[in-house]
Design brief:
Structural class of chain A: mainly alpha
Oligomer: homodimer
Largest sheet of chain A: none
Strand content of chain A: under 5%
Number of strands of chain A: 0
Helix content of chain A: 55-70%
Largest interface: A-B, 55 and 55 residues
Number of helices of chain A: 9
Chain lengths: ~220, ~220
DNA sequence: CTCCGATTGGACTATCCAGTCCAGTCCTAC
DNA sequence: GTAGGACTGGACTGGATAGTCCAATCGGAG
């Protein structure tokens, strides 16, 4: 009806376009992390990137679409920030190194920021179903990495055969989220450290009986 | 300079006024819980209470003040909702009853809501210092109740003398918050149950050696 | 070179929202 | 009963914000 199908180029198909889109996304991710979805306006993004309003709508289908892209970006950066410790979990010692990495990351900005993903739950879970699902899959990916580490630990005999890496990984993830939430509120890393230590103690309870060292080997603060 | 000091009546000093103020606060608390601070407008509150704009400003010094009052109200209702189980914690069995209460509360609304306090952290911690401090003191009160229960447990010999009730209570609180956050995001109570079970397992690791039962006595889901 | 679509700039609109204002009504102390 | 202050109603304002529109420019394929 409106002409033959031409090979349609997508918005951002050129190198320059992709660069611009990426710059917008990076700036938006930073703003959303610092201020949340509602307090980040498209004009803030525009100002931070020196890009015009129409470009925002050229690359994204409105604010909701931009936010979804931000969630996907956060999902990547959060995992990347924990490397290489996250993927190197293979023992309680490795777990401790990963815990220290998380605590160190939070200390870097004086606990002024929450978890890029966790902070968005209250904003999105209520009325942005697509956003909520994006968060769920981001959390699932994170949990998957942890689960893998725990499986390695179990195979190495550091966890009992009966241990359920999937559930334990979920427990670790909740400890991170709860710890970061209270760290953000109190502006202190202590809740994060305590949460992770307590969860890891819960893990130690799943160590084979003979190996089970006393709790607190990691040093409570 | 402007006349002798009269016994100044405060806004809401009459019975009727106090009733109205309370009705506004209750409605605002519900709306803020469901939608968050930014997505709750004063007009929403006005519509939900049948009250006029000027009454809102008569009883509160603007939106920020109303939100602070909502935080204080939430601080009360959250603790009240956990009664009587919260203040009855005196053993691992009591802890399990309290955990079931929390899980049951979350199930009541199908995990559609987050923690009334936790959900506000991302909204307030960034740029409302008074709101942030109100949250911190609400969390402190909650932690205090938990700490008291753990002290009772320690005195009853269910926790080792070396156990630190303050830190362990903080760990429990982070488990709740992380569990509720992921429960809200995934619309499933499982993260909450797993988080609490894992934290309680961490607590069991602090039980005196002889009494220490194996982990998972509470039944992992 | 020349064309065409991708890309860009920025003005414009419609809506929403916190906060203001003032006139009218109700309650209570005297 | 009555005067004064507490309480109430609702219109109005200024500013911010998401989204629209169209003309101008750029850049690569033929």
């Amino acid at each position: 009806m409106d002409g033959p199908e031409r090979p349609r180029r997508l918005a951002g198909s050129t190198t320059r376009g992709r660069t611009t889109r990426d710059r917008v996304l990076t700036a938006a991710a930073g703003l959303v992390h610092a201020r949340g979805v509602e307090r980040t306006t498209l004009d803030d993004v525009r100002a931070a990137t020196g890009v015009s309003k129409s470009q925002l709508y050229h690359y994204f289908d409105g604010k909701a679409d931009l936010v979804h892209a931000v969630v996907a970006r956060h999902a990547e950066t959060v995992l990347a920030a924990q490397q290489p410790e996250l993927d190197a979990i293979d023992s309680f010692a490795g777990l401790a190194r990963w815990r220290d990495k998380l605590v160190g990351l939070q200390e870097q900005h004086g606990c002024a920021l929450g978890c890029p993903l966790g902070s968005l739950v209250a904003d999105l879970a209520g009325d942005d179903e697509l956003g909520r699902l994006a968060l769920v899959s981001a959390f699932a990916a994170w949990q998957g990495r942890l689960r893998h580490g725990l499986e390695v630990m179990r195979d190495h005999g550091e966890l009992a055969e009966s241990a359920d890496p999937e559930a334990l990984a979920l427990g670790l993830l909740t400890a991170i989220q709860g710890g970061l939430l209270l760290a953000h509120a109190t502006r202190s890393v202590r809740p994060l450290r305590v949460a992770l230590d307590m969860a890891i103690d819960g893990l130690r309870a799943r160590a084979p009986a003979l190996t089970a060292a006393g709790p607190g080997a990691a040093g409570r603060c």
